[in-house]
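Sample intake sheet
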Amino acid sequence: MPIKIMPCLDMKNGRVVKGVHFVDIRDAGDPVENAVFYQQEGADELAMLDIAATVENRKTRLEWVKSVSSVIDIPLTVGGGIGSLRDVEEVLAAGADKVSMNSAAVRNPDLVRQSAKAVGSDKVTIAIDARRNSDMPSGFELVVSGGTQPVGNDAVEWAKQCRDLGAGVILPTSMDGDGTLNGYDLEFTRAISDAVDLPVVASGGAGSLEHFYQAVVEGGAEILLAASVFHFRTFSIRQVKEYLKSKGLQVNL
């Protein structure tokens, strides 16, 4: 399977934004312009996360989904504020190819099963945010609500539960690494990829070409998500793919 590159549009107030550790937010442009640009650049998939939806206790804004999905052909994963089967169906109807659930799935695990049954496992991505906590068996504690609330559950055990409930993709993000450009949390990514036989999306902290390579070889990820390095044009998607290819990995150029 070729390794996939997935830029991520973090959305707030109709704009793409990027923060560090989920705060210190900066503007990163218009979502439609970004989406078109990334598809032209060779992105394999695109993620769009409404980062304020859960915290503000509202649904994902469907007009953003419609406007972005209408200008691209690559698969679009949409997350943020998806809290019911109806939300899942509405977001897919608005043009998303997959939905990503996080806090709502933790609160109601049966939503994962219901969604997978209704729309298919391949359309259900579970985003898992975690922090290091040595009291947990895996060393990683699940956190929800945009990384603000620790749950007291083991993040790796939760990944296994989601797999058993029918999830098709796992997207782990370490709160310790988000937006820092210090590299993906390889230990956390590997713990998840070893625990579940599903595609794992490496997320949070890519800052160098080597970080992308490490996510595959050391982290076991098949899909590489990044935001800051693409939004602020540190690297092009083609640069990342050519680097991975030069290191012997399979990519679609």
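Comment: The longest strand covers residues 4-12. The chain has a mean pLDDT of 92.
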